[in-house]
Design brief:
The chain is mainly α. The chain contains 11 helices and 2 strands. The protein starts with a helix and ends with a helix.
């Protein structure tokens, strides 16, 4: 098995998550806790929260999703951005950990009961960058054997996440999923044009969907 950036991210995240499962002190130091960021300037929590998860199921879901999309996005970035592709893929993932939590931070600066953890926002960034790159690719949801094309899955995912976020009846940070997904799309678009790659994400997206219906 080739050791890719995605595999390295998965290994590091899995190791630290397992260590934190049985170490509440470590969990408390790494978890996203807005009051400590606002008052104690512990900005590292924007990133460290992505290294820990609530349980094995939470960890497995995120890392399996990253595994299936990460290497594809990394290879696509290398084709688009050349030698800088893998670095940009890593930058997107790491920065997404923080970017996806900015709205959450603004809303919960004074909320001493709020905590968040997991790499879901960054994983969403990778998945949605993958959808933008190949919108006709089918995504499979656990326990549902029917593949859903990315250009259908993406909007449905965002709509459902927005509804659940507004409803606010679960402990899942759906806001991070939404902003992570949008950031993944924005990162690819901005970098493609800013670095003058010749790759047009909009044209690629439209052409891929047109090909799907032919």
């Amino acid at each position: 098995m080739t050791i890719t950036i995605t595999i390295i991210i998965i290994i590091i995240t899995a190791v630290i998550s397992f260590l934190a499962f049985n170490n509440h002190e470590l969990m408390d130091k790494l978890i996203f806790y807005p009051p400590d960021i606002a008052k104690r300037k512990q900005w590292y929590r924007f990133f460290s929260n992505g290294l820990i998860h609530a349980d094995i199921g939470h960890l497995a879901f995120n890392m399996i999703s990253l595994y299936f999309f990460g290497d594809f996005v990394n290879r696509a970035f290398s084709q688009i951005f050349g030698s800088s592709g893998s670095l940009l893929y890593l930058v997107m993932y790491i920065s997404a950990l923080a970017i996806c939590l900015i709205p959450t931070y603004i809303s919960n600066k004074e909320n001493y009961y709020y905590r968040s953890l997991g790499a879901s926002g960054a994983v969403s960034a990778v998945i949605f960058a993958g959808i933008l790159l190949d919108p006709a690719n089918k995504l499979y949801i656990f326990f549902i054997p029917i593949g859903i094309p990315g250009f259908i899955f993406g909007p449905l995912y965002l709509i459902i996440s927005a509804y659940l976020s507004k409803k606010g009846t679960s402990h899942i940070n759906h806001s991070a999923h939404i902003w992570g997904a949008l950031y993944g799309i924005a990162f690819l678009i901005v970098m493609s044009f800013a670095l003058h790659t010749g790759f047009n994400p909009f044209d690629n997206f439209i052409q891929s969907i047109q090909s799907y219906f032919r």
